[in-house]
Each structure stands twice: as structure tokens, then as C-alpha cells.
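Example A, followed by Example B.
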Amino acid sequence: MTQQEMRAVPPFVLPGEAAALRSDAERLLDGVELARAKAMEPAAGTVFLAGRVAQRVFAAELMAVSAADLAAAYGCPRCGAGPELGHGRPGYTYRGAPLPMALSLSRAGGWTLLAAVVDAAVETRLGIDIEDPSRTGFDGFDALALAPAERLALRDLTADLLPAARARLWARKEAWLKMIGEGLRTAPSSVDVLERAGLRDLGPAETGLPAYLAAAVALSGPGQAAGSGGSGSS
């Protein structure tokens, strides 16, 4: 079984953390990542930088190399790859050579979850997602997000159980769509994730996340027919 590594990064809680983060970002991140953060509203830019710094440090520690020696190498099924690309399937090079690693990142409720497969084959695809049940209660969620079989599976749940059940399905759906490289370019309601090989729920003991957050991971690799493309990240 392929070993999946995970790390949860908590929300900012202390004064001055954002300033320290930006200093780390200037030291560790590439110009395309810094430019993307600068184009965002300040709070969103800080969250973006936090994810990128955490992901780079995570990858470096797993490979026992210096984070400062990594260079971002993102790939997008539609846009291609190159040093100027700041979105798509995450990856890094180390002194010019690609790291043999599949990566994915997700955020919800202020938390960030990182996932990696080390020594991954080139065709390995990984998708991770976390969701906050409080964000699933709007009118029309089921019609927008769920396939017919999924709506049927939730039909008899009481109102107090629905948010967590919806979040579980949404996390599974996003993880799967990231893994195949489509993201939300594919209508979520067209994808049934009740039962799919390579897709599973994650509990807090495995992720380090608070128990109220739903989490899922999707993985494909050699010999698995899970789709094409790459895992998404932001």
C-alpha cells in the first residue's frame, strides 16, 4: 500500500504570526508565488502564503533537503507547466531535478491539510480535501453539489446530521476532482463519490484536524484507472 504522509497546519492565533510568515515567504517562495499573493486581498494573500510555505517545508522535510533549495514546479492539464505557472498540480524541483513526490493541499475553517506520497511514480495522482459542515447549509446545496444517488443516501437523515453528511460527500467529491485534475470545472452534481476505488474518508487521528471537519483523500497510481490530469492546489 502506498504510504501517504499528512500534516495539519492550524489557523493563525498569535499577534505577529502574519509578519513572520511574510518574512518566511520572501525567503523561501518563488517570484510567481509571491506575485500571486500580492494580487490578492491582504488577508487572502496571507492565507495563500501560509499554505505555500507550509507545503514547501513539508515537502523538504519529507525528502530531507533544504526548503530554500526547492523551486516550485506546478503543472496544469490545460495550461501546461513551467516556472511561470503558479497554479495546478503542485510539485517541486531540487537543484533542477523533479522531486519524486505527489502533493495536494486543502483549507477549511482556518486549517490547512497537506498530503504527500513520497517516491511516487510519475503517473501517481493525489487529491486531498477538507470541508466545514457549517458551509453546506445553504438552500440548493443538494441540487448544486450532489448526484442523484447521493441525495437519495441523505434522504432519511435528520436535520442535525445533514451538515456533517453533506460535508463528508463534498470532501470526497473535491478530493476526487482534484486527483483527476478537473477541480470544479466539472459539475459536482455529475460525480457520484459514494463508492470509488482509491477514495476514502479521513478521521482526525490520521489528519490532526478538529473532529468537526470532514476530510477525504483520493489516490491513483500505476495500474489504477482513476482518470488523468493532476491534483489541484491553490
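Example B, a separate protein, is given below in the same form.
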Amino acid sequence: MSTVTTPPSGLTASPAVPEPGERLAADPSHRGAAPTAPRRDAEASRAAILRAARYLLARHAHADITLKAVADRAGVSAPLVLKYFGNKDALFARVMSFESDADALLDAPLEELGRHMVRHLLEGQTQRGADPVLRIVFAPLQGERGDILRANFRTQVSDRLAGRLSGPDAGLRAELAVSTLLGLGVMYGIARGAHLRGTSIDAIVDRYAPAVQAQLAP
């Protein structure tokens, strides 16, 4: 957060100048007064860029995606994308990681994990318009970079889940649980099944989560 310094008497402080294309947050301390220069909302801009890149990667080959397309979808300028991520390869290295997505997907006690995973996927589709873990379905679009997606998915999602399981065949059970979840994601978010989408999330969780949880059990 920037510090505002009061200028000496008789001088006027220069207004803050935003980076090109960067979204700004209004200063709440001056309500009712003349408009003042708002603060930069850098984290929101970074998040919007990552969301835009994920959206495009799920629909187009990496080679066909331009930084301008990412910037346009994120509502920022292409120079701002370069400022925050350096270049296209660095940006998509972040997008091809499932690390933070797995944090959210697996954030529940093991005995409740099936319900949490199903609910997390469905709420991602309905509230955020996408589920980042479902990006693995589009790996065939990405050529050699699809191999990076697959390797990241195995180590950051499937293998990480397996590490939480006790008993025999932990790796197999983890992959079966994840594949059960992805099947629901494909039918709900890609095929857009009318019956699924016409049913409440709570009802789907009640019916489907036991199938995921059953794979997690020894």
C-alpha cells in the first residue's frame, strides 16, 4: 500500500499515475470530497490476467494465443501483462501449474474430502465460470506443452492426493477418485448436461460425492 506524503505549504502533490491498463481502487477516505487519485489494485489485475490466460488455454492451442488476446480478455493492456509476468512463456508456466488449484480442491479432512471435491468443482463452474483443474481435459490441444500439463497434473493433483491416503493401492485409488470427479466436470461444464445443470448443487453432492469418497477408502 503506497504512503501519501503531505506536500509543504503552497505546493500541490502530483496525482498518482497508473500503469497503462491497470485497474484502480478508489480512496475511501475522501468520500464527499473532490475526487482524488485512486490506488492501484495490482493483485486484482494479476488475478484477472491469470483467469484470462486459463480461459484461453482451455479453448485454444498455446501457439495461437497472443498476449493481446489475454490482455483484452483481462481488461488490461499488453504492456501490463509483460510487466507482471515477463513474457508469454512465463505467464503460461504459471497457468499450467495446478499447485494453488490443488490447495483448494484438497482442502478438507479425508473423511469429508469426496463431498468437498464435488462441491468445489460444481461451485467453480457455477460461481466462477470454470474449474481450473478441468484444464487437464484440454491437454491434447497443447502439443508438447500438453505433456507439461499432464506431468503437473500427476504430481500436483493425483500424486498429492495419493500421499494423503493410507492402505494399499493409494495411487490407483487417487487416480480413480480424480477421474470420477473429472467425469462430472466434463458432463456439467463442457457437455452441459441439462438434467445436471437443472439440479441443485446440494442434490448432486448428496448423490455423487459417495462415488468419489468410495475410491478414497482403502
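On Example B: The first helix runs from residue 42 to 57.
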